[in-house]
Amino acid sequence: MKSILILTDFSDAAFRAAEYATSLAPLLGVENLILYHAYRTMVQGSDIPVPAPQVENLVYVEHMEKLASLQDQLRMMTDANVKYELLAEDAYLPDQLNKLCRERNVGLVVMGVAGKTGLQQFFMGSNTSQVLKVSEYPVLVVPQEAVVGKKISSVVFSTDLQNISKASLEQLHRFLDLLRPEVHIVNVEPPAADKYSDNTRNEITLLHDTLEKYNPAFHYVTGTHIADSVLEFAKEHHASLVVTVPKKHSFISSIFHKSISKELAYNSPVPLLSIPASPE
């Protein structure tokens, strides 16, 4: 992993995510952190973001100054030999994210999320949801309550045991090899579900074979609401991190759009690592 991309909107939640990423970088062997802010320039009286030459440079300078201030704050909290790169641009983040990650050798995207109300909650959830939806790279969502500097000693990998991608598991391996945590694999199904179909058995076998060296514990939980059950399981097992591989139309890819899942999206003290469902 060459670099970590830290997304920021200069909020308190984003600052906590940046702190968390800074403390995590040495554990992942990362020496380059990119502080990134995407903004849209608006012409007065217009609802459409368009270039405004008379203010564009001033806006850019202002954002770069904020990034420099953030960098100074983060440098004070670590003795690690970490290099910071500052990047602000007039861009729509979902359209720019994967291109940026490819060009900068990014192995992990980090962003914050915090419980809010009204329109602030809507836009925060929308931004996070869009990043999870489009990202071709692992995304770490850090809640504002996350404890910075705490060792990641226990990981909960939530899976629906359906069409598990070996490529995604290989990405998970990279994190587990570096962090060496206790690993729990949890599957939540409704009471009437058939947990032991032939396909399910095959997926369980795949997980056993590919994750064997981490000596994972397998847990099969009955619950009517997946997100709430995963959150409760993580709490009971003192998890430091929840990992998931989102799929189109799965609960995690739409979690920030469902009010029933706001407890996990906005209030969980446990960071969430979303690993993209890579093609085989």
From TrEMBL:
Domain UspA: 1-143
UniProt cross-references to Pfam families, sorted A to Z: Usp
Signal peptide boundaries: none
Family: Belongs to the universal stress protein A family.
Descriptive protein name: Universal stress protein
